[in-house]
Design brief:
- The protein is α/β, with parallel strands linked by helices and 195 residues long.
- The chain has a single domain, classed as HUPs (Rossmann fold, 3-Layer(aba) Sandwich), CATH 3.40.50.620.
- 39% of the residues lie in helices and 16% in strands.
- Strands 3-2-1-4-5-6 form a six-stranded parallel β-sheet, sandwiched between helices.
- Strand 2, helix 2 and strand 3 form a beta-alpha-beta unit.
- The structure holds adenosine-5'-triphosphate and magnesium ion.
- Adenosine-5'-triphosphate (ATP) binds next to helix 1, strand 4, helix 5 and helix 8.
- The site of adenosine-5'-triphosphate has 18 residues, from helix 1, strand 4, helix 5 and helix 8.
Length: 195
């Protein structure tokens, strides 16, 4: 079984994440996609705006109704800073026989050489990279041992980010249809990102 892991801060999860996940699933022949919110992301200067519980709830709502998408709380349960190498070791231990691939957008592809212990990571998993407006999907810039582990899959470029959604909500605008309806309703009901 081949499982794609779509990790992120998901503050909040949005349609760009889901389109990327679905394109990766089909394009790379994944059996399932697991959506995995980070506890504390290692690479972001600011703490998430929503609570861990709220980010988890939104991921669950986003996955609802799709039997091939599954929310997993392995990083949230572990706590602390979510380093991918720790997560990968945990996943491989917990799910022997499952092969994992990480699904990442172009900004993260670019950032791969800076991932903590990337040389160990690429020995254990491969990556599926997708385009994102504002970023070049240029694998030539990557060292060979990393580049060899990245497969590219195309998607219609989606210019949505969680930052944009937080800003739009703060400004009192509408983010309807930029996030799944169940996520939109949750944000409205809980006044998320309004201040
Ligand atoms: P933020 O603006 O808070 O950084 P984000 O929209 O970048 O949020 P993250 O949770 O940081 O979302 O990203 C998780 C993963 O999803 C990363 O691999 C990122 O590249 C990918 N991703 C996010 N948005 C898109 C998008 N619109 N198209 C393709 N990939 C995306
Ligand atoms: Mg981001």
């Amino acid at each position: 079984m081949l499982v794609g892991i779509m990790g992120g801060t998901f503050d909040p999860i949005h349609t760009g994440h889901l389109i990327a996940a679905e394109r990766a699933r089909v394009g790379a022949g994944l059996d399932e996609v697991w959506l995995m919110p980070a506890n504390v992301p290692p690479h972001k200067p600011n703490a998430p705006k929503a609570t861990t519980g709220q980010r988890w709830e939104m991921v669950c709502r986003a996955a609802e109704g799709n039997p091939l998408f599954r929310p997993i709380d392995v990083e949230i349960n572990k706590g602390g800073v979510s380093y991918s190498i720790d997560t990968i070791e945990l996943l491989c231990e917990q799910y022997p026989g499952v092969e994992f691939a990480y699904i990442i957008g172009a900004d993260m592809v670019e950032y791969l050489p800076k991932w903590f212990r990337i040389d160990d990571i690429v020995k254990q998993i491969r990556f599926i990279g997708l385009g994102r407006p504002g970023y070049q999907l240029n694998l030539d810039a990557l060292p060979e041992h990393i580049r060899a582990r990245v497969t590219l899959v195309t998607m219609p470029l989606v210019d949505i980010s969680s930052t944009m959604i937080r800003e739009e909500r703060k400004a009192g605008g509408s983010v309807r249809y930029l996030v799944p309806e169940a996520v939109h309703q949750y944000m409205e009901a809980n006044g998320l990102y309004e201040s």
